[in-house]
């Protein structure tokens, strides 16, 4: 009888470990700062109920601009978010304790759309270019590109905060700015307003660490199991995104409010096919590039190590367990 009880308890423990969705759901607020395709993994994981599968009741909250997301995280209103590394670095330089756990966006998705009369880089002098907010990936990447073109941001070219991606698009439509940084596929809508592509940042030949899973070191210490389950759902969401095009396109359409088939196809091809790897490790080279640029304006960034802004232990555990290979049937 004693042996039977032990066997039952053992089976019960195994059942609980492998079936977390049957436990009480852990509520979790997760913020994202834009409605472009770089957020697709998060959306797909939510719509496919992969968080629930891991015992998590995730509420997605749209907060316009990464800087506002950071504020909410520092106020402990949001424990996890999907933001890019410039926001993480700049927050930590100011005393925050943010850490990136996964980052599937290794190439910049932004495109610089400008008025027809702006035909060359030099024509940008004296012009106003819309970005979401200062401190975001839009801000960083535009400053980086202008620097390579020997144009001084804020002196030769004015960077105008618009609020969010949709607000940038609205600014182009109203001619409030001369151009704007827009991620795929919003640049297609700008083209319909008469703007043309001056630079495709995904083709400039550099690694760049875009949006990924970000939390605080304090939350990581307090809730490691929650993060472990979250990353498990996230990686499975990435698999679903890359392998189930019809479902993923519908999800992108829902969250981005895009119905144009051409725009949806462009979004899927860019992120699911061209950019995102199977295992979403952040790119050290891409983080170093961000540190180098920020270091030109903030001496505190000089000498910092890219690895100090990430923790890939959860991803390594998932990969070493065979979870990723099982998902892809390898």
Question: How would you portray this structure in words?
Answer:
The chain has helices at residues 2-18, 40-47, 50-53, 66-74, 85-93, 137-148, 165-173, 186-192, 217-222, 224-243, 245-256, 261-275, 284-295, 313-320, 323-327; strands at 26-32, 56-62, 80-83, 98-102, 110-114, 128-131, 158-161, 179-183, 196-200, 212-216. It has 330 residues and is an alpha/beta fold. β6, α6 (137-148) and β7 (158-161) form a beta-alpha-beta unit. α2 (40-47) packs across α11, α5 packs across α13 and α7 packs parallel to α8.
List the helices and strands and how they pair.
Elements: H1 2-18, E1 26-32, H2 40-47, H3 50-53, E2 56-62, H4 66-74, E3 80-83, H5 85-93, E4 98-102, E5 110-114, E6 128-131, H6 137-148, E7 158-161, H7 165-173, E8 179-183, H8 186-192, E9 196-200, E10 212-216, H9 217-222, H10 224-243, H11 245-256, H12 261-275, H13 284-295, H14 313-320, H15 323-327
Parallel strand pairs: 1-2, 1-3, 6-7, 6-8
Antiparallel strand pairs: 3-10, 4-10, 5-8, 5-9
Helix pairs in contact: 2-10, 2-11, 5-13, 7-8, 11-12
* CATH 4th-level superfamily of the largest domain: Periplasmic binding protein-like II
- Name the helix and strand elements from N-terminus to C-terminus, one letter apiece: HEHHEHEHEEEHEHEHEEHHHHHHH
The Rg value, from CA coordinates, equals 21 Å
Helical percent range?
A: 40-55%
Question: Strands of the biggest beta sheet: in what spatial order?
Answer: 2-1-3-10-4
- Round the mean pLDDT to the nearest integer and report it: 90
Content of β-strand: 15-25%
CATH class type of the largest domain: Alpha Beta
Biggest β-sheet description: 5 strands, mixed
Pick out the low-confidence regions: none
Domains counted in the coordinates: how many? 2
Shape descriptor: globular
Alpha carbon gap, first and last residue: 43 Å
* Number of helical stretches of at least 4 residues: 15
- Which class do the helix and strand fractions yield? alpha/beta
Q: Name the CATH architecture of the largest domain.
A: 3-Layer(aba) Sandwich
CATH topology of the largest domain: D-Maltodextrin-Binding Protein, domain 2
Give the tally of β-strands.
10
């Amino acid at each position: 009888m004693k042996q039977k009880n032990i066997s039952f308890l053992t089976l019960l423990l195994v059942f609980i470990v492998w079936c977390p969705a049957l436990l009480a759901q852990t509520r979790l607020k997760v913020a994202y700062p834009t409605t472009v395709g770089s957020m697709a993994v998060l959306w797909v994981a939510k719509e496919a109920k992969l968080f629930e599968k891991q015992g998590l009741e995730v509420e997605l909250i749209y907060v316009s601009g990464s800087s506002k997301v950071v504020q909410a995280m520092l106020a402990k209103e949001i424990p996890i978010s999907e933001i890019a590394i410039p926001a993480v670095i700049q927050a930590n330089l100011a005393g925050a304790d943010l850490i990136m756990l996964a980052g599937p966006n290794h190439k910049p998705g932004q495109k610089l759309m400008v008025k027809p009369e702006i035909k060359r880089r030099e024509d940008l002098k004296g012009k106003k270019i819309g970005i979401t907010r200062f401190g975001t990936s839009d801000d960083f990447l535009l400053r980086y590109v202008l620097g390579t073109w020997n144009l001084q941001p804020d002196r030769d070219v004015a960077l105008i905060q618009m609020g969010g991606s949709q607000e940038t698009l609205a600014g182009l439509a109203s001619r409030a700015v001369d151009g704007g940084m827009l991620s795929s596929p919003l640049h297609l809508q700008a083209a319909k307003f008469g703007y043309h592509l001056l630079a495709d940042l995904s083709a400039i030949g550099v690694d760049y660490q875009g949006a990924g899973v970000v939390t605080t070191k304090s939350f990581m210490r307090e809730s490691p199991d929650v993060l472990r389950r979250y990353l498990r759902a996230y990686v499975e969401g990435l698999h679903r995104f890359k392998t189930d095009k019809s479902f993923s396109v519908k999800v992108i359409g829902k969250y981005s409010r895009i119905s144009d088939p051409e725009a949806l196809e462009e979004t899927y091809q860019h992120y699911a096919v061209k950019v995102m790897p199977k295992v979403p490790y952040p790119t050290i080279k891409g983080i170093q590039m961000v540190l180098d640029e920020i270091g030109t304006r903030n001496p505190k960034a000089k000498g910092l190590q890219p690895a100090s802004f990430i923790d890939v232990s959860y991803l390594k555990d998932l990969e070493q367990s065979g979870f990723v290979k099982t998902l892809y049937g390898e």
